[in-house]
Specification:
Elements: E1 7-10, E2 12-16, E3 19-27, H1 28-34, E4 35-36, E5 41-45, E6 48-52, H2 60-70, E7 81-85, E8 90-95, E9 98-103, E10 106-107, E11 115-116, E12 122-126, H3 128-132, E13 142-149, H4 153-165, H5 172-178, H6 187-200, E14 210-211, E15 225-226, H7 227-234, H8 242-252, H9 259-265, H10 269-273, H11 277-294, H12 296-300, H13 311-328, H14 337-344, H15 363-374
Parallel strand pairs: 4-12, 7-13, 14-15
Antiparallel strand pairs: 1-9, 2-3, 3-13, 5-6, 7-12, 8-9, 10-11
Helix pairs in contact: 5-7, 6-7, 6-11, 7-13, 11-14, 13-15
Length: 381
């Protein structure tokens, strides 16, 4: 048997209520050689629709995102990929006194039409996007793999559904908060630290308005924004691709000058690049201070039907911030509160206008407020 068409794997056997499976390690490129991607699809057979496969369809954008991730300096996949192997393709052998699981193609001895090729030994129960990301790359990590042998398709589907349905989606605010533990600078860490300062400094108009970890703080009232919402507003002004910029920082310890065109899209990047995060914080405090003075009642009102200091209002304001900033300066600088206030005073909106009847919840309401704010800016010369 050609060694390229045989996998001999040391393993650990596990017994759980679903049955027995085998935990082992397989290089990514070898795993790709034996796995097929078994998508859930409809096939018609003589007018009868058959629903086949268990996996959701691969998302190209998700695969691309993971592919970029595996090229970063500290990438890892500590959780296991789960596969199912046809029992006719699995056997056991002793290697140096230790049992190995052997995976190889199958040819029926009595019917030559019954063949299971090497690329077809296994189907993926969970982890298809992670594995697909290694395809057509030079990366060949060792991957943790759990192997079920000879289980029926219904059991495979049950495992897939339970693994995915049982997972609790991680709170985005918690994810950003954990960047504080990273010893290296990154766009996410800087954004997180700025948000913490906005929420903790008494001179900040966002003082105690931000729910750390995404949930209300005991004993604090008037928290109208989640940490994730505020971070997501700031982060695009620092980096177009935070994962890549984080990797650049870890590898080289500095970031390149990206020129004027990039600055006009990412107004905070030059400050981040120079380690001047305090200037980003100053700009945000000055801007939101101008907002909170211009519309003081609307800013402080967190009651039902109000929106200026809530998610929709924040999303509109942070989007408008770049337009206002570039109206005031064409190079990295820190406009004052009065600079921003002068622009805001051109807007005829009153405190009572910031309600959910005029600016409905959701992206359309935020977009409408952004347009009303931007329309008041002086025309470019």
């Amino acid at each position: 048997m050609n060694s390229r068409t045989k996998l001999s794997l040391p393993f650990q056997e596990l017994e759980q209520p679903v049955g027995k499976f085998y935990s082992t390690v397989v290089p990514a490129q070898r795993l790709l050689e034996i796995c097929q991607f078994d998508f859930r699809q409809i096939k018609e057979n003589k007018g009868v629709k058959d629903f086949m496969g268990i996996q959701r369809k691969l998302r190209d954008d998700r695969v691309s995102e993971i592919r970029r991730y595996i090229g970063t300096v500290d990438a890892s996949f500590p959780t296991s990929i789960v596969i199912s192997v046809d029992e006719r393709c699995a056997s056991f052998e002793n290697v140096d006194g230790r049992r190995h699981l052997v995976l190889q193609p199958y040819q029926d001895p009595e019917d030559e039409r019954i063949v299971i090729p090497f690329r077809g030994i296994a189907t993926i129960i969970d982890g298809q996007h992670r594995l697909k990301a290694f395809e057509n790359t030079e990366f060949n990590w060792d991957l943790s793999v759990n192997i079920f042998i000879g289980i029926e398709e219904g059991t495979q589907a049950m495992i897939f559904s339970k693994v995915n349905l049982a997972q609790t989606k991680v709170n985005k605010s918690l994810v950003y908060d954990l960047f504080a533990l990273d010893k290296d600078r990154s766009p996410e860490k800087t954004s997180h630290e700025i948000v913490v300062s906005l929420n903790s400094r008494q001179d900040s108009p966002l003082y105690q308005k931000i729910k750390r970890l995404g949930s209300a703080t005991d004993g604090v009232f008037g928290e109208t924004l989640s940490q994730a919402t505020v971070v997501r507003g700031i982060l695009p002004y620092i980096s177009k691709d935070p994962m890549t910029d984080r990797d650049i920082g870890k590898r080289f310890g500095f970031w390149p000058d990206r020129g004027q065109e990039d600055f006009e899209r990412r107004i905070f990047y030059p400050f981040f690049r120079e380690g001047e995060d305090h200037k980003i914080l100053a700009i945000l405090i000055n801007f939101f201070s101008a907002v909170s003075e211009k519309w003081a009642d609307a800013w402080e009102d967190s009651g039902r039907g109000t929106m200026l200091s809530k998610t929709n209002g924040y999303n509109a304001l942070i989007r408008y911030l770049r337009d206002a900033y570039l109206t005031l300066t064409t190079k990295p600088a820190v406009p004052t509160k009065d600079d921003f206030r002068e622009l805001l005073d051109r807007c005829e909106l009153k405190d009572e206008d910031f309600n959910t009847d005029r600016y409905v919840p959701g992206s359309s309401g935020a977009a409408a407020l952004y347009r009303d704010l931007s329309d008041s800016l002086p025309a470019a010369e």
